[in-house]
Design brief:
By secondary structure, the chain is mainly β. Helices cover about 15% and strands about 40% of the residues. Keywords: Membrane, Transmembrane, Transmembrane helix.
Length: about 775
């Protein structure tokens, strides 16, 4: 924005030097923000605009092209793919679901069916920095600026011709709204602009721009200093209220329900409800350019130099270094004396006052120990008398916080040695140190120690007046009221091994293991909870926040198991970065009234919402170039591509495929591409579903396709080949048998000829002999 006056120069200088004064009345929201930048696949770190299309994809306009984001992957488009220019300023979707891009050469192009198309019309489009860019109900390209709507009509886009009622005063909205302002309405608006020193000329040179926006029956007069909300009626506009904001404003856009966003230089983004006036500020000390509230109610923030940020649950507040926390890696949590205590490494204990609307100042106590290494806070336990017991790698300490004066708090050392677990019953405190269980009295004097064999104890808890000891070699039971050491292993038949944590209430005991998940032990019944039902099978900490709610902390988030019907039924919710936690690595949980404080290695999350209730299911979309192809030739690779949209899962999507009638089980894949190389000819149905991070399944997506045989695999040709083979074989066999019969006939004829010859010879010999005998006889007579 050009600086035309000394006033503007002074204003910008004041913004950079004293930004807090301008936004002092608006609380700054510290929430978990997932950052996506150029190294993640985004074309550029400079984001000009963000929008979501009707299918659910997020489109990002940058100075180096356009990116489409599905929650996992970026699909990028540049001038090499058909964009008019790499620098894109606005994105809009028309009524035919084509995505249009406004580039820096005043030309418009659009995306359809996987390709970028340019318009044939040479008409140029002008969109000033403070104007918006959208399609109206007639599929005409509209630009709202000053007190009018500039309409661009392109016949090739199938824009509908309609009668223009008035030359001035026709205003269009992004959701199909269309209103006509009377001359009296325009006079009211111009009078208000004149009072604020805004005019046609200031808008033209962009020094003090303004425009109108219509959302249902509300008309908004938008400037860089305020937004005046009117109720529109045909009889005339009715002023409702005027919302002021200050700072170096870069844009004002309507997004979400009854809200608009204000992006600024170095003061982040305002999100303001123009009905109630409620406002929130995010991304302080950032240059923001665009803001989007998507269909899942996630917040997207575009920035000038850091890509864009995603907040999946802005209702979860974060306490971190920006809030004053000395160390974001929080190991343990507890509350005492109206304060929240957080244990860290290096023997640091942070504390903050509870009950204030805003996070109070955070103090730090350092526990002096003899060793500089192995000095983590391993346990925090509040006991009677507003005292908190602090276990470390080098000893156990007590802190009396009954005096509401942190300066008077001084830790007292009661025992030296590594502490692995602390529990209380009545007036005694028991804890694990090395290979022994030590019991302290209410006056913190040592009563008794019970030495164990080296079973590597990890935790302990009281359950039905029995002290249970968890170890890497199973679960043990100890009766410390006896004079002799009396302990024995229990639940060995249930194969419960490598126990890491225990938590019990009056009715049940929860047992956390390293790889088997957790076991709920209630009398003779034992129920196991393991992944994927809960976040992970490796349990770090178990916490009962009330008699029926169990929290299981893991390195993959925290699982909340809500029991009812006397622990016979339950409901499980998952909390992780997709719900707004700053990290999946959860170490501890503590409750204070309606608020739950969750310790992670990236700070403390504060929420009142227990998990993934009423979360939207993932949406499956056919996104392949071959998705519309239904016929393939044998030997041709058959490839299908689908995308599951679930931005709350932050890319953690599991795809499942099966050929109906062929596969008995689902095949699992990390991506939505399914490939077949040598499917036999035939008709098939490929079914695809997606599971999000909370084990919710999408609706099925069916691909119907046919694999056509090659020419030599055609049925008629195969039948003909078989018949031909049969005929050839028949002829060969016939010829063979004919030759055999011919040979047999010839042999028979030869035999007959030989026999006749023999008979002839025999006859001749007989005749000759008879004649000779007759001659001899005659001669002798």
């Amino acid at each position: 924005m050009p600086l035309k006056s000394y006033f503007f120069k002074l204003l910008i200088l004041t913004l950079f030097l004293f930004p807090w004064r301008l936004y002092a009345d608006t609380p700054y929201q510290v929430v978990y923000l997932k950052n996506y930048n150029a190294p993640d696949g985004l074309l550029s770190s400079r984001v000009n605009y963000l929008t979501q299309d009707s299918r659910g994809f997020i489109w990002i306009a940058t100075d180096k092209g356009v990116s489409r984001f599905d929650g996992q992957h970026f699909k990028n488009f540049t001038s090499a793919d058909g964009l008019e220019s790499n620098e894109c300023f606005r994105i809009a979707e028309d009524n035919y679901h084509r995505i249009f891009f406004y580039c820096n050469n005043f030309r418009v192009c659009y995306y359809e069916n996987g390709l970028i198309h340019k318009l044939k019309s040479p008409q140029k489009v002008t969109v000033l920095p403070f104007a918006n860019f959208f399609f109206n109900r007639y599929n005409e390209l509209c630009v709202n600026y000053r007190l009018s709507t500039k309409v661009y009509h392109f016949d090739e886009l199938n824009s509908r011709r309609h009668a223009i009622q008035h030359l001035n005063g026709d205003i269009y909205g992004e959701d199909g709204e269309e209103i006509t302002l009377s001359q009296n309405d325009l006079d009211i608006l111009e009078k208000e602009l004149w009072a604020g020193q805004l005019s046609y000329q200031t808008a033209k040179n962009n020094t003090k721009p303004y425009r109108l926006a219509i959302r249902q029956n509300h008309l908004l007069l938008i400037t860089k200093d305020w937004v005046h909300v009117y109720q529109y009626q045909k009889s005339g506009i009715i002023p409702l209220h005027k919302i002021y904001f200050t700072g170096n404003v870069t844009s004002v856009y309507l997004t979400g329900k009854n809200t608009f966003t204000v992006t600024t230089v170095k003061q982040g983004t305002y999100i303001i409800n123009y009905i109630t006036g409620e406002r929130k500020n995010y991304l302080d000390n950032h240059i923001t350019t665009s803001t989007l509230i998507d269909k899942e109610n996630n917040l997207w923030f575009g920035s000038y130099d850091k890509g864009f940020f995603l907040s999946t649950n802005p209702e979860v507040k974060i306490i971190n270094k920006e809030s004053g926390l000395a160390n974001e890696d929080v190991l343990k949590l507890d509350t005492a004396g109206g304060y929240l205590f957080a244990g860290h490494v290096l023997s640091m204990l942070s504390y903050m006052k509870l009950g204030a609307k805003q996070i109070s100042s955070i103090g730090t106590i350092t526990i002096n120990q003899n060793r500089s290494d192995f000095n983590r806070i391993t346990n925090l336990l509040t006991i009677s008398g507003n005292r908190i017991m602090i276990g470390t790698d080098n000893g156990i300490f007590g802190l009396n916080v009954s005096n509401d004066n942190p300066a008077s708090w001084h830790p007292e050392n009661y025992f030296d040695g590594p502490i692995k677990g602390i529990t209380q019953q009545h007036d005694t405190v028991s804890f694990i140190s090395q290979n022994a269980v030590v019991v302290l009295s209410s006056q913190f004097t040592r009563l008794k120690g019970y030495r164990f064999k080296p079973i590597r104890m990890t935790s302990l808890t009281w359950y039905k007046n029995k002290l249970l000891i968890g170890s890497l070699y199973g679960l043990y039971q100890l009766r410390p009221n006896t004079n002799d050491i009396n302990y024995s292993r229990i639940l060995a038949r249930n194969r419960i091994n490598i126990i890491k944590c225990l938590a019990a209430n009056n009715d049940v005991c929860a047992i956390g293991t390293e790889a088997q998940g957790l076991f709920l032990w209630a009398g003779k019944n034992i129920v196991q909870f393991n992944s994927p039902l809960i976040s992970s099978g490796d349990i770090r900490k178990l916490v009962w926040t009330d008699a029926n709610t169990l929290w299981a902390c893991t390195a993959d988030g925290v699982s909340i198991i809500s029991f009812y019907n006397n622990y016979q039924n339950y409901r499980i919710s998952l909390l992780n970065t997709s719900n707004g936690l700053p990290s999946d690595n959860v170490a501890d949980v503590v409750r204070n009234g309606p608020d739950y404080y969750i310790a992670t290695d990236q700070g403390i999350a504060v929420t009142q919402n227990l998990g993934n209730t009423n979360l939207p299911r993932p949406i499956m979309i056919n996104d392949g170039a071959t998705g519309n192809q239904s016929s393939f030739t044998y030997g041709q690779p058959v490839v299908f591509n689908c995308v599951a949209l679930s931005y709350k899962s932050m890319g953690k999507i599991q795809y499942r495929f099966r050929l109906k009638g062929v596969d008995k089980n689902w095949s699992v894949a990390p991506s939505g591409e399914k490939r077949f190389d040598l499917l036999p000819p035939g008709s098939y149905e490929l079914e695809a579903v997606a599971a999000d991070r909370f084990n919710q399944l999408s609706s099925s997506l069916i691909f119907k396709f046919t694999v056509m045989p090659l020419w030599y695999q055609q049925l008629w040709l195969q039948v003909l080949a078989v018949l031909s083979a049969i005929v050839v074989v028949f002829l060969l066999v016939r010829k063979y048998y004919q030759s055999i019969i011919g040979l047999q006939k010839k042999d028979y004829e030869n035999t007959l000829a030989l026999q006749r010859e023999r008979q002839r010879i025999s006859s001749e010999v007989h005749d000759d002999l008879g004649a000779s005998i007759s001659g001899i006889k005659l001669r002798t007579e």
